[in-house]
Amino acid sequence: MKNFRILTVALSSLLVLSACQSGSKPSTPSVGSGKSASLLAMETVAIAAHKCWFASKDPAFKSYRLANELNAFGGTPRFLLVPAKNYGGLPLLVVQARGNSSRVESFGPLMSEPIGARIHADLTRWSSGNNACGSTA
Predict the structure, then answer these.
(1) How far apart are alpha carbons 68 and 111 in whole angstroms?
(2) Taking burial as the number of CB atoms within 10 A of a residue's CB, which of 10, 57, 91, 100 is the most buried?
(3) Which of 76, 73, 8, 90 is nearest to 39 (CA)?
């Protein structure tokens, strides 16, 4: 569990550094990059989610924490939103892309809550390449 937390902190730090780069634009697949379309899509969405929901201290997301699983060995890079006070708890939101598809999927209990419409709009915007933050819920 300690190694998992260290890995999560390291991944979160990388996301913060990536989000802080001025003029950064979503990655586009390049020949020989070695990254699948799903991983490229999820990197873009995860960086935007971290920047817009957590680094900005958006009050709508203060009860949650981001748990990255972008290096999933099964070919399904994803990130989770989990309860802030129970990092090991059941995910309340799963955002993922599969195989070589750049189509981002989301599911979980938060999608049926009032914040679900906001999450859907943000994910749609980010997966289309627009990494702007939306309005608060």
Answers:
(1) 18
(2) 91
(3) 76
Neighbour count for residue 51 (Cβ, 10 Å): 21
Query: In whole angstroms, what is the distance from residue 71 CA to residue 83 CA?
Result: 22
SS3 67: strand
Tokens matching residue 50: 């971290």
How much is the pLDDT for 19?
A: 43
pTM equals 0.71
Q: Which long-range contacts (CB under 8 A, 24 or more apart) does 70-76 make?
A: 70/11, 70/39, 70/42, 70/43, 70/46, 75/36, 75/38, 75/99, 76/38
Task: Encode pLDDT of 39-87 as tens digits.
Answer: 889 999 999 999 999 999 999 999 999 998 887 667 789 999 999 999 8
Q: Are 133 and 121 in contact (CB under 8 A)?
A: no
Is residue 69 within 8 A of residue 78, CB to CB? The reply is yes
Rounded Cα gap, residues 27 and 117, in angstroms: 26
